Amino acid sequence: MRKFLMTIGADRCPALADEWIETENPYTGEPWAVIPRGREADAYLAVEAAHEAGKGAWGRLTATERGRLLHRLAQLIRENSDTLVDLEVTDVGRRRTELEGGALEYIASYYEYYAGLADKVEGQVTPVDRPGMLHYTTYQPMGVVVCIVPWNGPLLLASTKIAPALAAGNTVVVKPSEFASTSILALAELFDEAGFPPGVLNVVTGYGNEVGSALTSHPLVRKVAFTGGNAGGAAVARSAAEGFRSVTLELGGKSPNIVFADADLDAALAGVSLGIFSTSGQSCMAGSRLLVHRSIADEFVDRLVASMRDATLGDPGEPTTDIGPISTRTQFAAVLEHLDVARREGATAVLGGARALPDGGEKGWFVQPTILTNVTNDMRIAREEIFGPVLVVIPFDTDDEAVAIANDTNFGLAAAIWTSSLARAVGIPPRLEAGTVWVNAYRVVSAMFPFGGMKDSGVGRENGTAAIKEYLETKSIIINATVRTR
Length: 486
Ligand code: NAD
Description:
- It contains 15 helices and 23 strands.
- A 7-stranded mixed beta sheet has the order 15-18-19-14-13-20-21, with helices on both faces. A 6-stranded mixed beta sheet has the order 10-9-8-11-12-22, with helices on both faces. A 3-stranded mixed beta sheet has the order 1-5-4, covered by helices on one side.
- Strand 9, helix 7 and strand 10 form a beta-alpha-beta unit.
- Helix 4 packs across helix 5, helix 8 runs parallel beside helix 9 and helix 10 packs across helix 11.
- The chain binds nicotinamide-adenine-dinucleotide.
């Protein structure tokens, strides 16, 4: 059994109480490593280490120098990609082909993007309607930033926070998911090698209600960036509010993928499939509701079923695998529970609908790719985030009805429309209550443009130039030039 250590200041350490959590391989269903079970005292050490680092050499670096370190880190991520990919395949069940085919490069790109931005955060001189007064804004680091990360994409979802937080000059404590900490623990070791001073990046592992809540309530923490479920997000926001700490929340989704009758149906099929079945549906932006025009609904669903019927489920490390396992035992049970709910609600599984037992992965946590028809938007399976390879199909008759169904959800993370009509491509996106709308595309995301949710899908945005401001304090400086100075 492999043993992983936390990074606190200059130390690689177990938890103070020397307690451990087993982490399981979703393909085999067996424990394969242990991670430290940090508690309040470990959280406090990490926050203090981060605070000290901010007052030390890190705080004296110029923004350009911080950018150089982030560039070096991006390079090290590429050089160590084999190790990082192996860890996410083993710990999370992410497919090697997906990580090697671009996802790991995408993670490295975050550090480069924010490295470049570090010394381009410009203030503003504002006209003042009083003679002799000069006003300008500057931006300065907040201090200690806590980044709380879920299990479905640990390296990526940590990096979307770490990169802008460090570019802005803060120091960071990361709390990975208790189900998937190992890749982030390995990433932390690269910070040393890149030349970051000790304490700039700390990682403490353990349970959310133990080490996580200790971090979010620590008085030295000025900002919490969270990605995860809505219950965790609400707890984090409450705790942060007590201490008047700033928060960014990236939460769940139930995103509509809307196919109009005039769409390029081949492209739409590929986009709908990618939207829900890549990462086995374990993606906040999964296109989990297919809204399809009634005139093409039967044909479209038949083609979708045919395209998925022979999908290969199995070892996420193998290049021939199309669909990997569900990442955690708890989530596996939750997806199967939703399939029971679907049956009770009267939905029809035109594909899948049950646990899968692929050769070699019989003890793993596999769910058949599932397409459910006879679904209305008021059913639980159309309203709750399933976070598995489960697509519900809801036909519509008019554009207004499609928009109404799309918006009839508590979530507002993403949406897509598939159409060949310019009027729809231009006219529909503004009407959709979602932080991201794709037209004839799905899952196109980048460090370069904002991502985040409306309604219950979150608060604030990650990515893009504006996201660095989520990690900076704005300062107004007013100079009275009518008073004599030397
Ligand atoms: P989760 O909320 O259970 O856990 C997320 C993280 O929060 C974990 O590290 C956990 O330990 C920690 N945590 C939980 N309670 C806490 C508390 N009270 N105080 C501090 N930390 C706490 O979520 P999960 O099950 O790991 O992840 C799946 C969820 O994440 C899904 O709902 C999904 O939609 C969401 N997600 C959102 C995005 C996005 O960008 N919007 C991206 C990926 C995943």
